[in-house]
Design a protein that fits this description.
- The protein has 58 residues and is an all-alpha fold.
- The protein contains two helices and no strands.
- The longest helix has 30 residues.
- It is flat, with a radius of gyration of 16 Å.
- The N and C termini lie far apart (33 Å).
């Protein structure tokens, strides 16, 4: 992975904390959480696209 793509120390800590939280979830909770997380990723992608369109004057 390129150095610019590596995680900061704070991000590594947050990842480990997240991992611990997920391990404590039931299977059903984890599935529901993943669906919500994916939805948020799609929304974020749409926001980035709209931002770029606005910035580029498209």
């Amino acid at each position: 992975m390129p150095e610019s793509m590596s995680l900061s120390l704070e991000q590594q800590f947050n990842l480990r904390s997240f991992e611990t939280q997920v391990q404590k979830m039931s299977h059903a909770q984890a599935q529901e959480f993943l669906v919500k997380l994916y939805e948020q990723m799609i929304v974020r992608e749409n926001l980035y696209k709209e931002f770029l369109k606005h910035q580029w004057g498209l």
